[in-house]
# Entry
Amino acid sequence: MFGSKTNGANAYAKVSIETGVLAASPHKLVAMLFDGAELAVSSAMLQMKRGELGAKGASISKAIMIIENGLRASLDLKAGEEIAANLDALYEYMVGRLLQANLKNSPELLDEVQKLLADLKGSWNSINPNAGQPVPAAAAAPAPRAAYDTLAPRSSAYVSA
# Structure
């Protein structure tokens, strides 16, 4: 009749992540992408050791999506010039290594990508020392709004009195 405790915890975690994304600076968003990619690779390592091939593939796919559609897509190749081009090549390399890790069931390749992500994340966080710190509750909370009564009559911009 009621949802499981796991479903409730997952829903709470999802809301927490969504709230964090909405309150995050662009710098923090990139840090969150690094965290997500690292978590996905760590999960894939554990799943590989356990022989959970389907879950391992899903975790590797998630890491690839974060790298491709998050980290790599956020690069500005014109403005970033050589640094952005080098990062683009490194992200492409990591995706290739993840694909090989999945095909060969190689924890060594996952470990290589994990170390690269950790190095990049450390460098990124050193640019902004506040990037790894939680956002204070006052900064994360949306500005208070006036109470909104859904049943109260509303004025319309289309009707003039």
About this structure: The CA atoms of residues 41 and 63 lie 6 Å apart.
